[in-house]
Amino acid sequence: MKHLISILLITSLGSILYGYLGESELSQKFIGFGVLGIFFLVIPLFSYYRWKDKDPKDYMLTKENLDKMRDKNP
């Protein structure tokens, strides 16, 4: 999964750079597809990969978690 995310990121960034630096009629489409690739493929896959084994309740401000934080601070 990590390699797939890296490949997609490099491909998207390469597409954006080619769109800016290349002299083609399709340069705006390369930039657009690169941005779409980052926002619709890379970021969701990265978020899933990083959060798949974590419990979201540990990161919510519930009464129990607030009590734990108060107990840790002197």
Number of domains: 1
Largest sheet: none
- Low-confidence stretches are none
Distance between the termini: 42 Å
* Beta-strand residue fraction: under 5%
Query: Structural class of the helix and strand makeup?
Result: mainly alpha
Topology:
Elements: H1 2-21, H2 27-51, H3 63-72
Helix pairs in contact: 1-2
Can you give a write-up of this model?
The chain is mostly helical. The protein is built from three helices and no strands. The chain has one domain (2-72). The longest helix has 25 residues, at 27-51.
Keywords:
elongated; 3 helices; mainly alpha
Short description:
The protein is mainly α. It is built from 3 helices and no strands.
